[in-house]
Amino acid sequence: MAEFAVQSEGRSEGIVIKDDWPGYSLDLFSYPAHYSGDLDCVIIPHGVIMDRTERLARNIMDDLGNHAIVVLCVLKGGYQFCADLVDRIKDLSHNSNRTIPMTVHFIRLKSYLNDESTEDLHILGGEDLSLLAGKGIVGTGKTMKTLLKHVEAFGPKMIKVSQTIGNICLCHFVLSDVGFEIPNRFVVGYALDYNEYFRDLSHICVISDTGKMKYKI
């Protein structure tokens, strides 16, 4: 049985995967054969990610009311979540009595070397973030501290850090929704990479020591 828990005090805590959760056996899922031996387990199946993303989209719709949404997608690891979240918001908007204007912008961050987060954060496409002026910002990730220092210079109205897996969402409203809280293990898949590998993996998995050595630079 999966060791998932949903925090009871407010929806923002999201789904918590316990530290001692061993994950699902790879034999239960399909994944690219070229990653055979490179993974330890599946920690979040793709279907669970999609269900949780739909719930987050509903929360955003409920919170925003009639406010427009400005989405800032953090490349590269956040592109899949961003695309799926935007699609869910569009679906909900198209099938309701109200529609929410939405624009999408992109920024690229690079801070990892192998499985270590470095202090040298590269921000590409963030030279002019004047579109953030007067907006509320919601973001997540180990690289967020440096990124927030960068975007503060553009005068956002409010900054709120949230936890999901590899994404940033910006809007004209304060949000604090969490997708998943996972153990401190290096995960790949669903656009999260290890030296640019594993982005083509649908599930979120734990990389094995063999995989780290194989793709180490």
UniProtKB/TrEMBL annotation:
Pfam families: Pribosyltran. SUPFAM superfamilies: PRTase-like (SSF53271). One of its GO terms (cellular component) is cytosol. Residues 50-194 form the Phosphoribosyltransferase domain. GO terms for molecular function: hypoxanthine phosphoribosyltransferase activity; magnesium ion binding. One of its GO terms (biological process) is IMP salvage. This is Hypoxanthine-guanine phosphoribosyltransferase-like. It comes from Pundamilia nyererei. The lineage of its organism: Eukaryota, Metazoa, Chordata, Craniata, Vertebrata.
